[in-house]
């Protein structure tokens, strides 16, 4: 707890200093001197510690890589953000609202990054068999709930907000990774002959077929719908392909699928039609949401988990989907990609 408490306080102070001096550098009306914000910064820090303590985010025995941890992390930050914004907008203080909002945004990034660094320095490992509590619920409840959830539909406000987020996120990320995409295409073509991007027919929401895009990671003469590699030593995988698969870079072209509305940032991975045809009735619930680039199964265990269990994990997501869970999955995707666990 003491280490996390220290890094959190340092991160918060650093975030405020950055936000304050960035605002000062802008050609806008001058704001109060730095010392004027002393009481505000002290109160904000104390409130932060109290909220994070309430959500058990300083508990030593708690894994910083569990889904429940990420959800509580997001809830704690959201609550803290509400207090900060409310304070800046509903009090008659002379605090700069721009500084307060930017302070919050930078704090999220720095606290998250510092906690990942602490986890890495203290030897915490990403669980390869998922969150224990979630695994137990999946094993005992998912199949029973499946029949009850056959008519389950997410609420429209959530769906609308998710679609807006998906489109904006995919648009921004597509622009950001555009240079890398051209580099990857060049490396693939240089490494082996053939097309750099492959197109596969996959099953989307409500069973609709669509064409999914991926960077080619296997030899050009590999059958388009050949069985997926079961380990990273598969001879079909090219040299550059192995690197792309390890860090899921081969999925980048799917931002185009997200922009088209065929996929989401978060959701079950899209399956091939011949696999979906073999689904039992309870398994078809997986098709009630848009497939995603990342998802619950991937961040819980990826291919470290038995393939036959992925549907159960996806159904858990369908039954529990929420904006907080989506954000938690996206946050947990970052360390998963960095350490390339379960990818091949």
Describe the structure.
It contains twelve helices and four strands. The chain has two domains: 1-126, no CATH class; 137-338, no CATH class. It starts with a helix and ends in a 5-residue tail after the last helix. Helix 2 (38-54) runs antiparallel to helix 3 and helix 5 (132-148) crosses helix 11 (310-320). A two-stranded antiparallel sheet has the order 1-2. The protein has helices at residues 2-25, 38-54, 67-90, 97-121, 132-148, 156-191, 239-246, 254-259, 273-276, 296-300, 310-320, 323-339, and strands at 197-203, 209-215, 264-266, 292-294. The chain is mainly alpha-helical.
Briefly characterize the structure.
The protein has 344 residues and is mainly alpha-helical. The chain has 12 helices and 4 strands; from the N terminus they run H-H-H-H-H-H-E-E-H-H-E-H-E-H-H-H. It folds into 2 domains: 1-126, no CATH class; 137-338, no CATH class.
Strand content: 5-15%
**Number of structural units classed as domains:** 2
Q: How would you write the strand order of the largest sheet?
A: 1-2
Number of helices: 12
Q: Which features characterize this protein?
A:
two-stranded parallel ribbon; 344 residues; 12 helices; two-stranded antiparallel sheet; 2 domains; mainly alpha
Secondary structure topology:
Blueprint: H1 2-25, H2 38-54, H3 67-90, H4 97-121, H5 132-148, H6 156-191, E1 197-203, E2 209-215, H7 239-246, H8 254-259, E3 264-266, H9 273-276, E4 292-294, H10 296-300, H11 310-320, H12 323-339
Parallel strand pairs: 3-4
Antiparallel strand pairs: 1-2
Helix pairs in contact: 1-4, 2-3, 3-4, 3-12, 5-11
């Amino acid at each position: 707890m003491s280490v996390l408490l220290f890094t959190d306080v340092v991160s918060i102070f650093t975030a405020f200093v950055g936000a304050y001096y960035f605002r000062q550098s802008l050609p806008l009306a001058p704001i109060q001197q730095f010392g004027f914000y002393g009481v505000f910064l002290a109160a904000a820090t104390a409130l932060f510690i109290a909220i994070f303590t309430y959500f058990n985010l300083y508990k030593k025995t708690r894994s910083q890589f569990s889904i429940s941890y990420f959800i509580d992390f997001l809830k704690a930050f959201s609550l803290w953000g509400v207090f900060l914004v409310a304070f800046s907008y509903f009090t008659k203080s002379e605090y700069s609202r721009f500084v307060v909002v930017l302070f919050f945004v930078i704090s999220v990034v720095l606290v998250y990054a510092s906690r990942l660094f602490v986890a890495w320095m203290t030897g915490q490992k990403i669980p390869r068999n998922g969150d224990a509590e979630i695994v137990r619920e999946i094993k005992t409840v998912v199949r029973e709930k499946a029949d009850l959830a056959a008519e389950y539909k997410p609420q429209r406000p959530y769906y609308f907000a998710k679609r807006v987020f998906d489109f904006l996120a995919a648009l921004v990320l597509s622009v950001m990774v555009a240079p890398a995409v051209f580099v990857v295409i060049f490396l693939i073509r240089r490494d082996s002959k053939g097309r750099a991007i492959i197109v596969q027919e996959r099953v989307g929401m409500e069973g609709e077929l669509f064409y999914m895009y991926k960077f080619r990671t296997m030899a050009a003469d590999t059958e388009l719908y050949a069985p997926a590699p079961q380990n990273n030593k598969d001879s079909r995988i090219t040299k550059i392909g192995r690197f792309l698969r390890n860090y899921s870079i081969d999925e980048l072209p799917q931002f185009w699928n997200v922009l088209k509305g065929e996929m989401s940032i978060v959701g079950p991975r899209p399956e091939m039609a011949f696999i979906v045809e073999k689904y039992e009735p309870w398994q078809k619930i997986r098709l009630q949401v848009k497939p995603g680039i990342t998802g619950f199964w991937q961040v819980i265990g990826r291919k470290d988990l038995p393939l036959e269990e992925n549907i159960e994990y996806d159904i858990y997501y369908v039954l529990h989907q929420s904006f907080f869970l989506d954000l938690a999955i996206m946050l947990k995707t970052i360390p998963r990609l960095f350490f390339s666990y379960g990818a091949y």
